[in-house]
Amino acid sequence: RARAPPLRASSPLPAAAEKSDKGPDGKLTKEAMKALADGIPASSEELFALSVDWDAVHASGAVGSRIKDWVSGKFSEYLGEEDETMTAFVQQKLEERSGPRGIIEELKLVLEDDADVFVAKLWRMIVFEARRHNAEQ
Q1: Averaged pLDDT, 107-116
Q2: CB 106 within 8 A of CB 94
Q3: Could you tell me if 128 and 40 are in contact, meaning their C-beta atoms sit under 8 angstroms apart?
Q4: Please, which residues have CB within 8 angstroms of residue 40's CB and are 6 or more apart in sequence?
Q5: Which GO terms describe its biological process (predicted)?
Q6: Taking the domains of the chain in order of start, what are their residue ranges?
Q7: How does 28-48 read in b/e, with b if 16+ C-beta sit within 10 Å?
Q8: Count of alpha carbons within 13 angstroms of residue 108, beta-carbon side
Q9: What's the CATH number for 29-136?
Q10: CA 104 to CA 56: how far, in whole Å?
Q11: Between the CA of residue 101 and those of 3, 41, 132, what are the distances in Å?
């Protein structure tokens, strides 16, 4: 009876066959998105110092969808009701590529002390969406 050849240690997979950060649909996996988010600074000072790839932000379509929905929800939370005018105001500021400190100053009239936290969270989303868009290209 013939014996099967001895098993050899397999060679490492070529780089192309390694686990990808993208799923079959070309979108980032949850693990890859978490890694992207973890790479964004938590402190406002560091976060606001980052350069934003506005072309990627706008190309992703996030300002008109995910970010708009988040902003609308936050205004409902802070003000007790939806405020389409404030949501549109923030969207306009993002379309104009305004800086975070200017947005904070303008929102302090409505959100008072919550403006700093609101814009820091908003800015994390903007940076994340730009990085995600670039990673998926």
Answers
A1: 95
A2: no
A3: yes
A4: 47, 50, 124, 127, 128, 131
A5: mRNA processing
A6: 29-136
A7: beeebbeebeeebeeebeebb
A8: 7
A9: 1.20.1390.10
A10: 23
A11: 74, 16, 24
The number of angstroms, rounded, from the C-alpha of 59 to the middle of its chain's C-alpha atoms is: 13
Q: d(Cα 42, Cα 48) in Å, to the nearest integer? A: 10
Residue located via tokens 């923030």: 90
In terms of Cα–Cα distance, which of 117, 135, 137 is closest to 47? 117
| Angle in degrees, CA 70, 120, 102, rounded to 5 | 100
CA-CA distance, 87 to 44, in Å (whole number)?
22
Identify whether the C-beta of residue 89 lies closer than 8 Å to the C-beta of residue 103: no
Q: Is residue 16 pLDDT above 70, yes or no?
A: no
Q: What is residue 102's DSSP assignment?
A: H
**Spatial separation of the C-alpha atoms in residues 98 and 119, rounded to whole Å:** 12
Q: Residue 63: is its pLDDT beyond 60?
A: yes
What average pLDDT does the chain have?
Answer: 85
Amino acid at position 40, single letter: I
Tell me the C-alpha distance between 131 and 50, whole Å.
12
pLDDT for the residue numbered 11 = 39
CA distance 98 to 89: 11
Amino acid at the residue 33: M
